[in-house]
């Protein structure tokens, strides 16, 4: 369970970076060259999703829970926005859903 959660977290970072870099280019006047590492990050994201032993739909569903938590941590650490108790509660619910789905993978 820990290995799967960590892999999902790394996967979420790859996806967020792959989307954040084009956002920097489009919204903040960053260099178009940001699209190169963005594409690499998104390719890494896709490859990381293939490393899970479950059917793709289950992987995507479980991954969504970790993505929610990771996106909120990004919001706090990168964007500097203070998280509310609702943010933390939502992240806990989403991660709980991931844990329930992953627990059923071996069944």
From TrEMBL:
Cell compartments where the protein resides: Cell membrane
Keywords, alphabetical: Cell membrane, Membrane, Transmembrane, Transmembrane helix
Matching SUPFAM superfamilies: Multidrug resistance efflux transporter EmrE
InterPro entries linked: EmrE-like (IPR037185), UPF0060 (IPR003844)
ATP-binding recorded as keyword: no
GO cellular component terms attached to this protein's record: plasma membrane
TM region positions: 6-25, 32-54, 60-78, 85-105
Topology with respect to the bilayer: Multi-pass membrane protein
Protein family according to the UniProt entry: Belongs to the UPF0060 family.
Name of the protein in its database record: Membrane protein
Organism: Winslowiella iniecta
């Amino acid at each position: 369970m820990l290995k799967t959660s960590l892999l999902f977290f790394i996967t979420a970072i790859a996806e967020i970076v792959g989307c954040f870099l084009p956002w920097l280019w489009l919204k903040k006047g960053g260099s178009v060259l940001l699209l190169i590492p963005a594409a690499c990050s998104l390719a890494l994201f896709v490859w990381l999703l293939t490393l899970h032993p479950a059917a793709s739909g289950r992987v995507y569903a479980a991954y969504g829970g970790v993505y929610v938590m990771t996106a909120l941590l990004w919001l706090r650490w990168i964007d500097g926005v203070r998280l509310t108790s609702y943010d933390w509660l939502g992240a806990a619910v989403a991660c709980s859903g991931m844990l329930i789905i992953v627990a059923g993978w071996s069944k």
